[in-house]
Amino acid sequence: MLNNIGITQIYVLDQDQALDFYVGKLGLEVRSDADLGFMRWLTVAVPGTDREILLEKPGPPALSEETAAEVRALLTKGASGGTLFFRCDDAYKTHAELKEKGVELPEEPEDRGYGIDFGLRDPFGNNIRIGWVRQS
Prior knowledge:
Mean pLDDT: 95
Low-confidence stretches: none
Number of strands: 8
Number of helices: 3
Distance between the termini: 28 Å
Shape: globular
């Protein structure tokens, strides 16, 4: 039986720019960075956790060039279909720290009943939510 999710994948248009954002601004750490010849296998993770995020450039071998072009177009519109949800201990403090690092933050933290969170997009259009969740 299944017991965990090990890797979640999102598309990015530039893996070096993705590293700058996810590691340099959000504080994740690199877990894998390997040139497989046909693709660069690049994963990051929240320090101290075991779930990784694959920062994949749309293209072969997973996608044809035609499909990859469609994915890139959807991604830049913010219509890639997925959202990364990160938890933190203090949404207000995390928001302020990210703002200091130059992250574009279109939302202020807001109490939504289940907790306090805010949303943003990475440099490629992927949706991200960051927040503190009340424990019942």
